[in-house]
Every structure is written in C-alpha cells, then in structure tokens.
Design brief:
Chain B: This is ABC-2 type transport system ATP-binding protein. The complex is a heterodimer of chains A (250) and B (305). Chain A is mostly helical. Chain A has one domain. In chain A, 78% of the residues lie in helices and 2% in strands. Chain A has eleven helices and two strands; from the N terminus they run H-H-E-E-H-H-H-H-H-H-H-H-H. The radius of gyration of chain A is 19 Å and the shape is globular. Chain B is α/β, with parallel strands linked by helices and 305 residues long. Chain B is globular. The C terminus of chain B is likely disordered. Classes of the chains: A mainly alpha (250), B alpha/beta (305). The interface between A and B is medium-sized, with 27 and 37 residues.
C-alpha cells in the first residue's frame, strides 16, 4: 500500500511539473470555448434545450479532458516502455497492476483539474449558472467517461514507439473530437456524420455531460457504449502489454 | 554454504538463435562473482533471466530459494541494468524515496546519497545529470532496498576513472561481512580481476570457464616474464633461449615473453651476461587468459558490449 501511494505521488509530481503540457492541453479548449461563445452570442441561443454556452462548455470540457488524460499517457507509457525505465521497475517488488493503477489515479486527478479549471473559467467569464449538484454531476460524468480514453492512450503507448505514440494519440484526439461532435454540434452535421458520431466515445462522453446539465441521467446507451470501448481498449492494451513484457529486448 | 542463485540446465532461444545453451551453475552466499564473455555471449540474457525479466525456454532458475518473478523474491534483490533512461521532472532524492518505499527494510536516504557521492545532487533533476552521475543514481536505486543479492550489468559504463575507483570501493564495503552476494558483468577485466572471488566465462551461451581469478589465469598454462633490456640489445638477442612455442615482443626497452615454463627460461636468462633489469614473472593479466580461453584476438570484440 505504501509503495502504491508512493508510486501515485511520484506520477502526480511528474505530471504537475510538466506545466507546458498542461497549459497547452488547456489552451486550445479554452480558446475555442471563448471564441465560439462570443461568436454565437452569449445570451439566447439554445441547443438540445440547453443554452449554447452551457452546451459548448460540456463539449470543450470533454475535449480538454481527453487532451490531458490520453496524450500524456500514451507518450509516457511509450517512453518508459522503450527506454528501460519499466524494465528497471520490473526488477523491484512493484507489480504491473500497481504501475498501471497509479497511472490511472494520476490521470483521473488530471481530468478532475482540467474540468475544474474549464468550469471555473466559464462560470466566471461567461456567467454560466447552474445548481451546484449539476456542476458536480457533470464533473463526475466527464471523469467517468474519460476512462476509455485513458485505456486508449495506454494501448497506443504500448503498441507504438515514442514518436509514433505522440502522432497516433494526437490524430486520434483530433479526429475523434471532430467526428464525435465536440467541435461542431452534431445537430448541424450531415446525416451520415451524425450516424457515425453516435457510435463514437467522444459523442457519448459529451452526451453524459449534456444530459446531466439538462437534469437527466446518462442514458443506458451512453454508459454501455463507453464501457464497451473501455473493455475493448483494456483487453487490447492488456494483451499487448503482456506480450511486450514477455518479449523484452534486453 | 547456502546457494543464492541456481541455474539448472537453462536455455534461451530467440527464434532459431540459441542465446543461452544449457547453462548450469550456482552461486554461494557472500561471494562476488564476475560474469565475463565476449560481446553477444549471452551475459545480458543470463542476467535478464535471473531477474525474471525474460523467461528461459528450458531449465530452472532459483533465486534466494524462490522465483525471480515473485515480489517476495524481488524484495531481496537490487539490480542495475543497461540502457535505462531515468524519468524526467523528478529529483534524485525523490527517485530514491520512490524505490525505498518498495522495500520492507530500505537503506536510509542519507546512506544512499553518501555512498554514491550524490549528496550535492540530491535536489537536481535526475535525467539532467551526466552519464556517470546517472549511473551512480542507478547504483543508489539498486541499493535502495538493502538487497541480499545485488545484480549489476556493466555498472561502470559511462563513469570516469575516479568514479569507477570509488564505485568499486563502495562495492567492497557492501559485501565485506560475507552476508551479501554480488553478481556483476563488466568489460573492465582488470577490475573483475581485482574485485571478484570467482569468475564465470561464457561464450556462445555456454559456460567455458569457472574459477577464481588465479585459477582462470593458470588455466591457459602461459606465464609472462617482463623486463627491461639495456641499450644496444633487442628481442632478437633473446631468441636463442626461447622454445618454438614462446613468444617475445618488445616495446621501447621493455620486453615481454610468453612461455609455458617460466622457471627454466628464467634460469637460462639469468645465467647470461645480458643487461636485464626489473625482471617480473606473472601469470599474466586476466585479459590474457580471457583472450586465450575465448580465442578472441581483437580487443574490440571483448570491450564493446
């Protein structure tokens, strides 16, 4: 237990000190948020029954969260796996499970901070007002929905080398976000794109938040699809990780 | 004597290539063992197997009466590997604390910093240190758990002469009371000669020599006579005393003769009027024996690992 918390603290310290990465992954969603909210009016527009600024805040909070949890994880796992650090850790009593769990805890905390900063900025500067339970519900909802993206980041880190992992996770990040309706509302997409969006974890992630701030529980479809993606990525990532660790190049 | 490590008919194949071939040996508690062999002989594979990093294709490895894949066994082992980059954004002290937290009876932080001479660097980013300093950090990490069994793969790579001397000095302190065991590989043969109680030479994945440094050196049967020869004389003047097997080389005024029978050759040489001085007889360096055993002529083949 002591070893496990030490590993978590260690991962957290390293992540928090990587300020450049945190700022960069927050900058884009914050910029988009303020740009579009100002462009399309701060007042009366609604989308799926929600004020535009509230709707788009949930989109951008989801977008920002994926950016902080997925990209950094893919990169870090790839580096540690290919540059011997993981090999050295494996000579210690630390188990693979503790290693992976400490990464998940760290990424969840990063997700929490990302969402908190986005929500605070929106509440202060664009006057988004909601009952506190909706804020908390949306925050927890987005954190829960970030799990499949962590698993995807981990899988990319296991399958790709250091450079390829950065490229692959950035590409997945941008494409999934656009096609999942985080940048433009699904409602204004052509029909075939709407159909595609409904199958993507990015849409389901934001939909959890959209529904919560609209006083609804997340739909069964949202939860089932997110869990399915999570399980798929965990299985692929887990198998690839075990294979990689069995055939360590020494 | 308890055995700390036991290899029983261990083999490892990579595809069709056999990296380790039916290797059997055991290591007694309290010994310092050096694993030597030419590049690609299977040293790193052997170490990776005993650390549980890779599985042997065949055979059985017992470490501290247990399985190296079990955390219970790993709690008693410290390891230093090759090609490890330390993580960034973390200080030397934080890294050591992380590793210490993995073990039930860790060495104290101050002890670790002092013994590796890293006290002044304790708050620096570990990944930004020089190669030799990073190697010392890794040594400190290996020592963090106060291990019973220390496994070091090429520990002095990247260290300068002074660091290497300090390093070997620290290692001697580590095993002094005979309670702890050390297995290391190095390409500095003179260092292996100085520190090891026992030397294992492997080639093509097989154990080809096993013994104390003196036994290994005697194994070749060669002795070496080194001396100074006065002005106006050359190695050719000694040629008549040598057998066809003996070899004589000269550099400046220094002459070295390799022979099977140093006693009779020495007697002959001393009876002459030749101006010979500073005569020295030795079993040769470990290096000479190593080349003879492995049939390697080219030093590069041995040093680059």
């Amino acid at each position: 237990m002591k070893a496990y918390w030490a590993q978590c603290r260690f991962e957290l310290k390293r992540s928090m000190r990587n300020r450049r990465l945190i700022i960069l992954s927050l900058l884009l969603p914050l910029f988009y948020y303020f740009f579009y909210v100002n462009l399309y009016g701060n007042s009366s527009q609604t989308l799926s029954g929600l004020p535009w600024k509230t709707y788009f805040l949930m989109s951008m909070a989801s977008f920002g969260t994926i950016g902080t949890v997925m990209n950094s994880l893919a990169n870090r796992v790839a580096v540690e796996r290919t540059q011997g650090w993981l090999k050295l850790l494996r000579t210690t009593p630390l188990t693979s499970r503790q290693y992976i769990l400490s990464k998940i805890v760290t990424q969840l905390l990063l997700a929490f901070l990302t969402i908190l900063i986005m929500f605070a900025a929106a509440a202060i500067f664009t006057h988004v007002h909601m009952p506190i339970r909706l804020w908390i519900g949306a925050l927890l909802g987005i954190m829960f929905a970030s799990l499949p993206f962590m698993a995807l980041g981990f899988t990319i880190g296991v399958l790709a080398g250091e450079n390829a992992a950065s490229v692959a996770s950035s590409a997945a990040y941008i494409l999934l976000s656009i096609f999942g309706g985080l940048w433009f509302p699904v409602a204004i997409m052509p029909h075939w794109m709407q159909h595609l969006a409904h199958w993507l974890p990015t849409f389901r992630m934001a939909n959890v938040a959209w529904r919560i701030v609209d006083h609804q529980f997340p739909s069964t479809t949202d939860i089932l699809l997110l869990l399915t993606y999570f399980v798929i990525f965990v299985v692929i990532g887990g198998l690839a990780f075990n294979r990689d660790q069995k055939n360590l190049s020494v | 004597m308890t055995s700390i490590l036991e290899f029983q008919n261990v083999s490892k194949n990579y595809g069709s290539k056999r990296a380790v071939d039916n290797l059997s040996f055991s290591i007694e508690k309290g010994t310092i063992v050096a694993l030597l062999g030419p590049n690609g002989a299977g040293k790193t594979t052997t170490m990776a197997m005993l650390l549980g990093l890779i599985q042997p294709t065949d055979g059985k490895i017992t470490v501290l009466h247990g399985n190296p894949r079990q955390p219970a066994t790993r709690r008693q082992i410290g390891a230093m590997l090759q090609n490890v980059s330390l993580p960034d954004k973390i200080s030397v002290q934080e890294l050591l604390q992380l590793f210490r937290s993995n073990y039930p009876n860790p060495a104290s932080l101050e002890t670790l910093l002092q013994m590796t001479g890293l006290t002044a660097e304790r708050h620096k980013d570990a990944s930004k240190l020089s190669g030799g300093q990073q190697r010392r950090v890794q040594f400190a990490l290996a020592m963090a758990g106060n291990p019973q069994f220390l496994v070091l793969d090429e520990p002095t790579t990247g260290m300068d002469v002074n660091s290497r001397r300090d390093f070997w000095h620290q290692l001697r302190g580590y095993t002094k009371n005979g309670e702890r065991t050390l297995l290391l590989s190095t390409h500095h043969l003179e260092e292996a000669d100085a520190i090891a109680d026992r030397i294992l030479v492997i080639q093509h994945g097989k154990l080809i020599a096993d013994g104390s440094p003196a036994e290994i050196k005697a194994k070749t049967g060669w002795s070496y006579i080194r001396m100074q020869i006065g002005e106006g004389f050359t190695a050719a003047d000694l040629q008549c005393f040598l057998t066809s097997e003996d070899e004589c080389s000269m550099e400046g005024r220094k002459v070295q003769i390799r022979t099977r029978d140093s006693d009779s050759l020495l007697r002959k040489l001393l009876r002459t009027e030749l101006p010979l001085s500073q005569i020295e007889v030795s079993q040769g360096k470990l290096e000479d024996a190593f080349f003879a055993i492995t049939n390697k002529e080219n030093y590069e083949e041995v040093t680059v690992s």
